[in-house]
Amino acid sequence: MEAVPARARAYVACVVLGALLCAAPLPRTPASWWAVALLAVVYAGCERAAARWRFAGTFYPVLLAGAFLLSPAAAALVPLPGALLSRVEQRPYALRRIWRAAHLMLGVRAASSVHGALGGRDSVAGSDFPYALVPAGAAVLAFCLTLTALEGGILALGERVPARRAWRGLFLRSLAPVAVHGLAGLMMAVLWRSPYGPVAALLVLLPMCVSWWVFAQYHRERAAHQATIRALVQAVDIKDGYTRGHSERVGQASMMIARELGLDDERVEVLRFAGILHDVGKLGVPTRLLRKDGPLTPEERRVIELHPEYGHEMVRGIAFLGEARAAVLHHHERLDGSGYPYGLMGVQIPESARVVAVADAFDAMTSTRSYRRARPVPAALEELQRCAGAQFDPRMVTALVRALGREGWHPVVTAGEEPDPFVPAQQAADRSGARP
């Protein structure tokens, strides 16, 4: 958001003013300044490490340790240097850094105020467990509520998210990770006040840093997977312009079916990949056949029907795709054995392929193609139900009908073509395999 709306700038200015006020009065004792400086340096170092690992997020244990150890004004200073020096991905860089610093300062101030009001600093100094958990838990709640309230405001004003959606789910999504960080921060604070001192407190960060690094590696690997899939899909879209957007829509429909079937999140993601990549084998089919306007000859159809095998050869070495590879190979098989490439029947067809077959045919019918106009969703679902048991798995069809009834469907349709006569689901699916 390079051009920040005036109302968003005004909102940021108000938050910054509040942050400046919350840092008053400044700490008066050298011991407080020393603790603020040490925690601020540690927090800034953690932020720099996060930027190096390209991990999105912030290191809350240090901030919450400051809230548990220091007065509200002193604790509010801890995030300031690290936030102002943090890595920012989008412009305007300065404004984003200032916003980050200001809203973290307000969050830490709120946490420290609640913690102190409940006698938390005395319980930390006396290592008074389990009673120290009560004020610490209240402080974490205050911290989380403050951040989500402020972040919802910037989403509504700066990113133009509708007000009814700006705050929806923010608090619940952030509470669990912040609570874990709060426990680490409480451990730091207790050790800081123990005879072992700040050095022992900082050792708490070592396992947190290791787990954070592992998590960052996971996200980096996941980003590489997404980039691989995106490159393959873009190549197919460039080769066959008729199907632009088809792969993503089939991936979305496959994901909806998988969720309706109650599959776990990992399998849902794999089936989304299966839907996205189901037609990748078209890279091995001559472009002139994919773009042919007239009817296909039997020989041309046989060439195009090789695309599932081409696709399987392309993706079989990509280990993270798992059962998606079977879907790429078998998504044109039919329950009655009349499909291709191997004429599998019933449960011989992998479940992932049966999911993608329904998603593929549904999008083929509800998208405008060179040979026919898009059909309404109810008509497409009726045709899928008519073909269930012969061509499609009835479970998958029922799952799609239920999911669409609850969530709806808004396909990307290319306008401007004249409608052709009615094309049944079986023929639409054939053309989806031959020339979507």
TrEMBL record:
Residues 221-416 form the HD-GYP domain. InterPro entries: Cyclic_di-GMP/3'3'-cGAMP_PDE, HD/PDEase_dom, HD_domain, HD_GYP_dom, HDIG_dom. The chain crosses the membrane at residues 63-86, 138-158, 170-192, 198-216. It comes from the Bacteria. Keywords: Membrane, Transmembrane, Transmembrane helix. SMART domains: HDc. Residues 243-365 form the HD domain. SUPFAM superfamilies: HD-domain/PDEase-like (SSF109604). Residues 415-436 are annotated as: Disordered. PANTHER family: CYCLIC DI-GMP PHOSPHODIESTERASE TM_0186-RELATED, LIPOPROTEIN. This is HD-GYP domain-containing protein. It comes from Streptomyces gilvifuscus.
